[in-house]
Structures are given as C-alpha cells and as structure tokens.
C-alpha cells in the first residue's frame, strides 16, 4: 500500500517538473510566433516558469484547505533555492553577479520575505493581505518593464516602493495594454479587408497548432502532477504523524524546486551568473507575492507558531546572507556555496530530528 503511494508521489513530481518544462517552452514558442518580444517572453514566461510547480501545488493545497502544505512549500522552496540551488551552482563555478541585481531585485526579495513575516505574525494570511501580495507582484512585473524600456539601470528598490505606493503601475498598464489592444483590432480589420487567398496564407504561417496541443497536454500534466504530489504528501504526513508543514517544506518544496535547480546549474556551467542568481531571486519573489497571494485568495492560510519563530526567520536570514555574499566581490565563490549547503543541511537536520514542528 505504501509502495503505491511512493510511486504516485514520484509520478506527481515527474509530471509536475516535466509538464512545467514543456509548458514554458511551448508557451514561449506560441508567444514568439504571435510576435511577442523576447523581453516580454523572458519577463513573464521564463521568469514565471520555474515557479509554476510551486503555484500549481499550492493552489491544489489551498483548494483542499491544507495551509501547512502551502506555507511549507513556499518557505521551503525559498530556503532551498538559496541554500541548495545557489550552493550547488557555486560549487560548479564561481557565480558572478551585478550591482543592479542587488539594488533592485535583491532588496525586493528581502522586502517580500520581511512583509511575509509581518503578515504571518498573527497566525494567518488573510485575503486582504493576499491582495496586497498580488498587487505587489503585478507592480513588480510592470516595474521591470518600465525600467527596461525607459530608465534602465536607474530603477532600484526605493523607486519600486514609490512606484507601488503611487499606483503608477496602473497608469503604465493603461498606457501600454490599451493602445496595443487597439492596434491589434486595427490589424484584424486590415486582415479582414485582404483577399481570401492572402488572408489564408498569412493565417497559415506560422503553424502554432502543435504548440497549443503541447500547451494543453503539459498544462493537464501540471494539474495532475500537482494533485498527486499534494495528496500523497498529505498521506505521508498522516501516515508518519508528521506535521504537514514539515512535509511541505521538505518533500513538496524540494520537488517543486527542480526547475530552478536545472536552470541554475545549467546557467552556472555556461558562466551565466546573472541568470543563475536572477532565477533564484525572481523565483523567491514570485513564491511570496504570487504563490502565497493566489493561494490565500482561494482560502485564507493559517500559520503555525514554529513557522513564525523558526522557519520564516531562517528564510529571512538566508535572504540576507545571499545579499551579503552577492555584495562581497560581486560573486558567489565555491566557499560561499559550501556555506549555503552546510546551512541547508543543518536546517533540515533541526527540522526533522529536534521535533521542532510537532504541534
């Protein structure tokens, strides 16, 4: 009986990881064929792609009102992203970073972790707090677009806070999306006025039907994989009498962090340090703002005391340490990678052997 559950758990992880991989690739292919710029693709699909497993599994858990799985998944993924993934990446090669990454995205990641802690102090993440997270993620995404197109290199953390509090992202959305929709409608009208033969040729190139098919199948695989992963995680939590937060922060978090692991190791091998670290920082921001935001909007999340007193503070500590290491010589050396891996191993040891989360 338990063997079947183990198989289903592994199957869920495989479907989730591979489904996410194919989903991102096919979505990027569709976007390119529809004429979407590479920057927009990178900003949305690639940056968001590695957080799809966390989002899918957390949404399924939220629908089943399993707050421990959601909170454990997010906090555990963020800790694993820094301790395990950056640590392994640094062992492979020195990861060089840039100052802009620290001043904008690094500080926003730390801000997200601190705000998360403020919200969970009372033991819950309410829908109103979830809405704030979602608005922050929308603002952050639009803020990146603003910085890329207008003031590249000048957009830092303090500008982001002003940008969010001033609701400037709403103005940006209106000034960019509405004109593009109008242009799209104009292009459709032009297309309708063309002869049928020319119209047929233009519509037939490029063929995106295969990409859409892969998109649908991979999306289905993500949902099924997330469902298996969450259900079996709950089963093992009950079977071994382990708090669900422990399962979420270990098995579920490690499983959903596989895409980040693959991207970071690949980037480190090829010498793309900014991609390696940027992937982790971007994923950590998305995990809190987007994943917690969406999950808590579905069902307000309850938070146990050990998360408040140990797990979340450790996540904040690892975030601060990452920023310190980035600032030190603007690279993450192998020694720093060993420090991260050691801290992550000690974290898991305390988690499992000291019965810290037994309620």
What does this structure look like?
It is a single chain. With 359 residues, the protein is mainly alpha-helical. It is built from 15 helices and 4 strands. The strands form 2 sheets. The protein has a two-stranded antiparallel ribbon. It is globular and about 55 Å long. The protein starts with a helix and ends in a 6-residue tail after the last helix.
Short description:
This protein is mainly α and 359 residues long.
Beta-strand residue fraction: under 5%
Kindly report the spatial arrangement of strands forming the biggest sheet: 1-4
Q: Structural class, please?
A: mainly alpha
Identify the CATH class: Mainly Alpha
DSSP summary: helix tally: 15
Q: Report the span from N to C terminus.
A: 27 Å
Succession of helices and strands: HHHHEHEHHHHHHHHEHEH
- At the fourth level of CATH, the homologous superfamily is NCX, central ion-binding region
Shape: globular
Which architecture would the CATH scheme give at its second level?
Up-down Bundle
Which segments are poorly predicted (pLDDT under 50) over 5 or more consecutive residues? none
Number of domains: 1
Percent in helix: over 70%
Predict the CATH topology.
A middle domain of Talin 1
Number of strands: 4
Radius of gyration: 21 Å
In this structure, how is the largest beta sheet organized? 2 strands, antiparallel
């Amino acid at each position: 009986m338990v063997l079947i559950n183990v198989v289903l758990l592994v199957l869920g992880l495989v479907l989730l990881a591979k489904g996410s991989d194919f989903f991102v690739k096919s979505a990027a292919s569709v976007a390119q064929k529809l004429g979407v710029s590479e920057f927009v693709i990178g900003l949305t699909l690639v940056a968001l792609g590695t957080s799809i497993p966390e989002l899918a599994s957390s949404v399924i858990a939220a629908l089943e009102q399993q707050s421990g799985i959601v909170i454990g998944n997010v906090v555990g993924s963020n800790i694993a992203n820094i301790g395990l993934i950056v640590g392994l990446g640094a062992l492979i090669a020195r990861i060089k970073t840039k100052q802009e990454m620290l001043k904008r995205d690094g500080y926003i990641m730390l801000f997200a972790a601190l705000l998360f802690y403020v919200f969970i102090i009372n033991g819950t993440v309410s829908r109103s707090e979830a809405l704030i997270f979602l608005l922050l993620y929308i603002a952050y995404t639009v803020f990146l677009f603003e910085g890329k197109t207008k003031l590249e290199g000048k957009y830092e953390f303090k500008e982001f806070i002003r940008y969010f509090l001033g609701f400037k992202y709403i103005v940006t959305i209106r000034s960019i999306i509405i004109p593009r929709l109008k242009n799209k409608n104009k292009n459709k009208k032009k297309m309708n006025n063309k002869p049928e033969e020319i119209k047929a040729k233009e519509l037939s190139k490029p063929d995106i039907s295969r990409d859409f098919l892969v998109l649908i199948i991979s999306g289905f695989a993500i949902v099924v994989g997330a469902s298996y992963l969450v259900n079996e995680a709950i089963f093992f939590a009950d079977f071994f009498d382990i708090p669900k937060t422990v399962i979420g922060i270990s098995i579920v978090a490690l499983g959903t962090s596989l895409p980040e692991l693959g991207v970071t190791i690949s980037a480190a091998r090829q010498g793309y340090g900014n991609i390696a670290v940027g992937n982790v920082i971007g994923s950590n921001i998305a995990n809190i703002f987007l994943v917690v935001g969406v999950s808590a909007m579905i069902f307000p999340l309850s938070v146990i005391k050990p998360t408040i007193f140990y797990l979340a503070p450790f996540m904040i500590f690892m975030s601060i340490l990452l920023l310190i290491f980035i600032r030190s010589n603007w690279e993450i050396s192998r020694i720093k990678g060993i420090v991260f891996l050691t801290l992550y191993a000690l974290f898991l040891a305390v988690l499992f052997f000291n019965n810290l989360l037994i309620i």
